[in-house]
Amino acid sequence: MRRRTEISVGIVVLAGIALLFFGTLWLKGAGLGREEVTVRARFREVGQLQVGNAVKLRGVPIGRVEAIELEPGGEGVIVSMRIDGDVVLPTDPVVLLSPESLFGDWQAEVYPRSRFPRYDYAEALDPAVLPGYSLPEFSRLTAVADQIAENLAVLSERFEAAFTEETAENVRLALENIQQVSAQVTRMFGAQETTLADLSENLQATTETLGQAAETVRRVSAQIEAAISGGELEAIVDNVTRTTAQLDSFSTALLAASRNLESVLVQADSALRALSLVAGAAGSGQGTLGRLVQDTTLYADLVRTNALIQQLIEDFRANPRKYINLKIF
């Protein structure tokens, strides 16, 4: 009887140990008889994530967090996760850490990057390590909300300080000024309607004039085309050719005349040099002409002789019979 009791107690103890062992494995999420793989992800921080927290895909648990370790440089956190081996991860997967409930439990959920493309994921140098991002927890959201509320309160106080009764009156006056300006602009546009109508008429007249000019150009073009087809243009070209030949002859004659003119200029230059020598000699009193120029007595005699000749001419005009005595037999 005593032996049976000891056997029963032993069986109960073994059963308790087995239950504790398998219960622990179940709580850790260990799949008995299932193949599991380890997936790692890099984060800048992990919040309240703990070893044993759930790993989910599309809201379905696929494993548990196995380890949480700091990188050697302390710039990031590496989270190792044990997930079912038959799970197919999405293309370009990323891992998001977020609160699972209001009681402080966290979870790691796998998403495709295209689901949340704007998050600043913690990329790893190792391509086998998935990029991760930790969403803010409720306490941080509350702190951010408090800061936003404080900023809004400051803005409200500043708005109340800035928007006084004087400001409201200024705004009202500004609106009235805007209304007056709008009325003036309306009147100005009304006054410009006549000017715009006149401008439209002038544009229409200009268009008609341009049409007439185009018609004239068309007629001239037709006449030119007729002249070309009638041979008139060929005659004009022949005349131009003959004129060009005449101009060539004229240029040849002009060239010869220029050469003759050059010789004449040489002779004129020689004559001017001789004249210059004569003038120089006369100026210095050399020769007959020089003595004539330098002798003032000769000049006085010439003046007196000229006066006598003038008196003689006047006397001849007054008394012609005195000098001419004509007798006819």
Task: Give an overview in words.
With 329 residues, this protein is α/β, with parallel strands linked by helices. Among the domains are: 33 residues; 106 residues; 34 residues. It contains six helices and seven strands. The model has no long low-confidence stretch (mean pLDDT 78).
The major pleated sheet works out as: 7 strands, mixed, barrel
Silhouette: elongated
Helix content: 55-70%
Beta percentage is: 15-25%
Radius of gyration: 64 Å
Which short descriptors sum up this protein?
single chain, elongated, 6 helices
What does the secondary structure layout of this molecule look like, with pairings?
Layout: H1 2-28, E1 36-43, E2 54-57, E3 60-70, E4 77-84, E5 93-99, E6 106-112, E7 130-134, H2 138-162, H3 165-230, H4 232-283, H5 287-294, H6 296-318
Parallel strand pairs: 1-7, 2-6, 5-7
Antiparallel strand pairs: 1-4, 2-3, 3-4, 5-6
How would you briefly describe this protein structure?
This protein is an alpha/beta fold and 329 residues long. The chain contains six helices and seven strands; from the N terminus they run αβββββββααααα. The chain has helices at 2-28, 138-162, 165-230, 232-283, 287-294, 296-318; strands spanning 36-43, 54-57, 60-70, 77-84, 93-99, 106-112, 130-134.
